[in-house]
Design goal:
The chain is of the alpha/beta class. It has 2 domains: 119 residues, Response regulator (Rossmann fold, 3-Layer(aba) Sandwich), CATH 3.40.50.2300; 62 residues, no CATH class. The chain is built from 8 helices and 8 strands. The strands form 2 sheets. It has a 5-stranded parallel beta sheet, with helices on both faces. Helix 2 packs parallel to helix 3. The longest helix is centred in the first third of the chain and has 13 residues. The protein is globular, with a radius of gyration of 20 Å.
Amino acid sequence: MSEKQIIIADDERALTTVFAMRCKQLGARVKTYANGRRAHEMIKESKPNLVILDIDMPGEDGLSICQGMKASSDPAVSQIPVLIVSGRNDERTIQRCQQLDATYCQKSSNIWSHIKPFILDTLQLEEPKREVIGRAQRSKPAISMLGKVLCIDDDLAITRAIQLRLRQYGIVSPHKNEKTRHNKSWRVRIRGNPLRF
């Protein structure tokens, strides 16, 4: 089976980075664009298997791109599935997505849990199986790899994505303003064992 290709167009670079990383983990090849006009050109040229669009972007907005795709005389472009991912949640926007035969998903802190099943189903991909290892084996690499980690981001979606990634290594990231009782240093818990730094 040939590798599936996804084009992601969104001017929020942090979000596209997370989406691209997650899609690659599912086995897809990913290209990202921050400019809508450039993304539209590449969609027509490369004819991906799935397009993920934000609405508000420089160059050309996502709804306009989608409309242009659906109006294309080339079925290899007009029949590409489109996922609209936007902070807009007004009824007019949602209805417009439905009229364009695009799937709509509102941006939120748990957005990946909503779009991942759609991507797997649309591209007929299987979720990669994770290797199951024992607690002792899991905790030692996590501690040796950890060093000192400090993550600061005002975007809750990005923070959640990083937390989920850390948890794959058995690392539980601290909650906001969590302090130790003693020297007030930040800490994370690895399977219940506090690490201070």
